[in-house]
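Q: Predict the bound structure with adenosine-5'-monophosphate-propyl ester.
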Amino acid sequence: MSDQSSEQTLSNLGHEDRRFEPPEDLARDANVKEEAYERAAKDRLAFWEEAAERLTWGKRWDTVLDWDDPPFAKWYVGGTLNAAYNCIDRHVEAGTGDRVAIHWVGEPEDDRRTITYADLKDEVSKAANALIELGVGKGDPVAIYLPMIPETVISMLACARIGAVHTVVFGGFSSDALVTRINELDARVVITSDGGYRRGAPSALKPAVDEAMAKCPDVRTVLVVRRTGQDVDWNDDRDRWWHDVVDGQSTEHEPEQFDSEHPLYVMYTSGSTGKPKGILHTTGGYLAQSAWSHWAVFDLKPETDVYWCSADIGWVTGHSYIVYGPLANGATSVMYEGTPDTPHKGRWWEIIQEFKVSLFYTAPTAIRTCMKWGKEIPAEFDLSSLRILGSVGEPINPEAYIWYRENIGGNRTPVVDTWWQTETGAMMISPLPGVTAGKPGSAMRALPGISALVVDEQGEEVPDGSGGYLVLTEPWPAMLRTLWGDDERFKDTYWSRYPGWYFAGDGAKKDEDGDLWLLGRVDDVMNVSGHRLSTTEIESALISHPKVAESAVVGATDDTTGQAVVAFVILREEAGDGGQEIVEELRTHVAKEIGKIARPRQIMVVPELPKTRSGKIMRRLLRDVAENRDMGDVTTLTDSTVMDKIKTGMSGSKTDDE
Ligand code: PRX
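A: Predicted complex:
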């Protein structure tokens, strides 16, 4: 295992030996039962055909999987469908148009919108007609940079409806990140808003788009949703208000059936190099697996359940489990705009109480934050509607799992720890709540139809009780099809380490029962609050500052955020010896280059960096420094005194991220 893999170091308090069997009533009525594993093992492709039959197809596929030219997969070959039709119209046609699709909750109290499936059909049709009027057609990329408001979902589905390819850029990313994505995809239309509400105040989004536009000469239209009413700069040639362009459109729009492999969206994510990767997802396979897994893992009963995923739509979790999965299943969801502590730290639990949420999906980092705030806060609310809790984004430490189960789930609800990635498109490893027992900290086993192994350096499966690398040995419907415009990088990154197998980049161990425990990344990718960040990308951002000569970034263990960004920099001579001012300047610089989420928690100005004889920075040692640990073996360093020099010559700051 490389030095980036981390054992779970967060406090475990012996909880890892506990085991929770599925509640009896859940086991009896579960959507998916034990036999699904056996059926899928016997005939994986027949299993995935059945999953796809839950969707409505224009034309049924001829061949379920084409894997003749690996790693380029085609699923449901020859089939046609429309993703938006599947997420909306078919429910209306089936008579459930007045079911609520989205209970939207704005951050300001009493700010609510209730959107039924019939409403969604009208809104998405209008937006689709508007995009057509703006010249957007099949295959055209559209960039979406919006807060958590209904128009974000409407925009995505409007794109899907007309076959345009959306790329949603997380609102916390900087204007530079927006530029890279818009230009790489050659998007000509950008959808944004004046801003959104966060932490009790309007925050702005349009200024970042305005700044980006100076470097995106080919963008012809910026469509702007008015959310907060704050003043915005306006370019008459380019900017159009959403309400001017969309509101007057017809609510009629006939969806076209697209090829199963028609591109649905590109989502950028961090890799181990500085350049973000454009993960391409296509229509049929992605929708089939995101819908099936949502229905199976949350045991969704669309008539009675109320589901809430607290992720931001700017990440893949929001795509698969706020938009495509739940809507394809006809679910009723809650969508919340703001932060969990506005206007008070019980806001989430108050929302669960108000809407009687029964299925809740969040990230370990949020759970740990709530733990810090104290169990008295959720105890003030009626959370008895909850029946299943989900976790995603990073390893969940047993203590957080138990806290979640006890204090949010009233010790009744199963916790499903779901492992997957932007690349996998949908959940891959997770308990099924009516079938699989839960162990605090374990994602348990691969879902039916998914083939996962833990292997050693040579690709041999490790025995139970051992650790290694996680690989996926068979293609799956929601898998990424390639990296946008870079087939070679797609092959190199995922398929070359173990030819024919997908290398996930995660370490994992199998316990004595053969159940899986995910241990974190084994490459230069960090996971901060469940957000994926690349060490190299942050290093490049630091080096682009004129005062920085060299930099190294590590992810240090953090009790709340899982990992935190810690940077070591060598300054250029003319920059002087550092001090608080330059540290702040560099933190701001990283926030500007990438986004606030990438801003280092701590920057240490050092005289040297530890390097191996071949010139590679030894991040392991820097992590030891960042985590105040003994450094162990330093004999491979070029200069074994360098670590002493670093420790004595270090100046820097520790600043908590807000
Ligand atoms: O390291 C794993 C971690 O998050 C990475 C994927 O990040 P991203 O593409 O941003 O997708 C996050 C949401 C699906 C993985 O390589 N990860 C995700 N879920 C888990 C996890 N690690 C442990 N347990 C999980 N349940």
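A: The first strand starts at residue 63 and ends at 69.
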